[in-house]
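Give me structure tokens for this 107-residue protein.
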Amino acid sequence: MTIKILINVRRKNFEEMNYVYGALLLHKSGKEVNATNLKKVVEATGTDVDEAKVKVLVESLKGVDIDKELEQAVVSAPAPEAKPAEAEKKKEEKVEEAAEGLSALFG
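Here you go.
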């Protein structure tokens, strides 16, 4: 029973994402993101079109610069790469400390 519920929830989320993906696809291909075009894209996925979801998404995207929003979303992704540089810096410091210790011994 629990598995069926999870599958239905995931299927519902997937179907809702079809609208967002459809809008992104229309934008990327240079087509206007409007109700008619979005309905065609969603229908092409084999999903039943929910008119209310189409209206809400189209209205929420009015006045939104999708390119700018996508650029900001991508810019924030690469941040975790700073850690390897810090590890490399620590290794260099250890090597320098070891060299200083040897020079103190031999003068």
